[in-house]
Amino acid sequence: MNWWEYAFMQRALVGGVMVGVLTAVIGVFVVLRGMSFMGTGIAHASFGGVALGLLVGIDPVLAALAFCLAVAWGIGAVTRRGALKEDTAIGIFFAATMALGALLMGLRQGYNVDLFAYLFGSVLAISTGDLYWILGVGALVLLTVYLLYKEFVFIAFDPEGARVAGLPEPALYYLLLTLIAVTVVVALKVVGIVLVSALLVTPAAAAYRLSETVGEMIAWAVALSVTSVVVGLLLAYGLNTASGATIVLTATAFFGLTLLWGRKD
């Protein structure tokens, strides 16, 4: 049989493309706002949630979502009050949630094969139910971005100006953190905790070097992200390599090309 005749490959491609679109769109605002490290911190925070879910027998995805939201809002609250710089707060939350995850998994008996899937992704194991989850949550995130597109662009470039113009900049900032957290959790199945921040940032960073407007950047980011997912998945199938890692390395290769081809600023 050819690869496209396998149901698991069909589901993997559909799910991977949907996640590629979602991470690309949110990734644009992450890159423009200078929140790449924030994306990494939120992604790794999900480790604590997954570990808790596996330990107590609740859905690891829902537990990861709760952890990601708590960490995202916590970092936002600490930094906006001026208690700490953002990178310092992220480093503290990053280390604490990873340590908590390691502690919880140490309490779990047996080989943690489920945890390995969440760490590095299991796109080939995506089920029909997972596709509905990705589609539903992803559509909600993208609809939010569409409705608040101008506002998100404004706070990405000039948060002070947004406040002066009367926009609820703090609320928009926390909403963006929420969208990042939700996107991270949705992408866990495809590339896993370790690599999800790369899919969130790398295509958008490559798109930045090829674009003159935010609209162009979103279009390029989506194209590069989806292409990375499809090419990476096919390479992983043909070479028998880890799918999540192969997808991320493909995206990184595209970024490398933009260093040669993209704008020089």
What does this protein look like?
The protein has a single domain (3-261), classed as ABC transporter involved in vitamin B12 uptake, BtuC (Orthogonal Bundle), CATH 1.10.3470.10. The model has no long low-confidence stretch (mean pLDDT 87). It has 265 residues and is mainly α. 82% of the residues lie in helices and 0% in strands. The longest helix has 40 residues, at 169-208.
Return the string of H and E elements.
HHHHHHHHHHH
CATH homologous superfamily title: ABC transporter involved in vitamin B12 uptake, BtuC
Proper CATH architecture: Orthogonal Bundle
Please identify the structural class as seen in this structure: mainly alpha
> What does the overall shape look like?
globular
Kindly state the mean pLDDT as a whole number? 87
> What does the main sheet amount to?
none
Helicity, in percent? over 70%
Short description:
By secondary structure, this protein is mainly α. It has 11 helices and no strands. The N and C termini lie far apart (48 Å).
